[in-house]
Amino acid sequence: ISKGPGNTKSAKSTEVPPGPPMYLDLVYIPNHSNSKNVDVEFFKRVRSSYYVVSGNDSAAEEPSRAVLDSLLEGKAQWDSNMQVTLIPTHDSEVMREWYQETHEKQQDLNIMVLASSSTVVMQDESFLACKIEL
């Protein structure tokens, strides 16, 4: 779109072009699971056995409830019911509420949320962790 001499403004589309799904073993959900960058189309097209969900900032809405709901909606449109494991990097109120409120749908869609009960200690820090075997 032209706005006069020397000033041009290009229109950007946020739609993902149509195409076949990609199958991966492990996917890190981009941008701390922020809904501005990940939606239902992401999960319809990027199909994985394991998704890592990062984010522990409720003020920044990370992880986003909309992203977690998009996983459910996107996976519901897959033509197979393959097992999917969701791996949160942090314990958050959003994750706990989503897990409890959608647990039945998760089971129907063959989605398992991996909880952690292990603690790793490195130097002066300790944090929750989980073991993943692929």
Describe the structure.
It is built from four helices and six strands, in the order E-H-H-E-H-E-H-E-E-E. By secondary structure, it is α/β, with parallel strands linked by helices. The protein has one domain (22-128). The strands form two sheets. It has a four-stranded parallel sheet with strand order 1-2-3-4. Helix 3 (65-75) packs parallel to helix 4. The longest helix has 16 residues, at 93-108. It is globular and about 50 Å long. It starts with 21 loop residues before the first strand and ends in a 5-residue tail after the last strand.
Content of β-strand: 15-25%
Distance between the termini: 49 Å
Number of strands: 6
Overall radius of gyration: 18 Å
* Succession of helices and strands: EHHEHEHEEE
Taken together, the total number of domains comes to 1
Query: Going across the major beta sheet, what is the strand order?
Result: 1-2-3-4
* Main sheet characteristics: 4 strands, parallel
InterPro entries: MAP1
GO cellular component, one term: synapse
GO molecular function: actin binding; microtubule binding
Protein name: MAP1B protein
Key features?
alpha/beta, about 130 residues, about 30% helix, microtubule binding, two-stranded antiparallel ribbon, globular
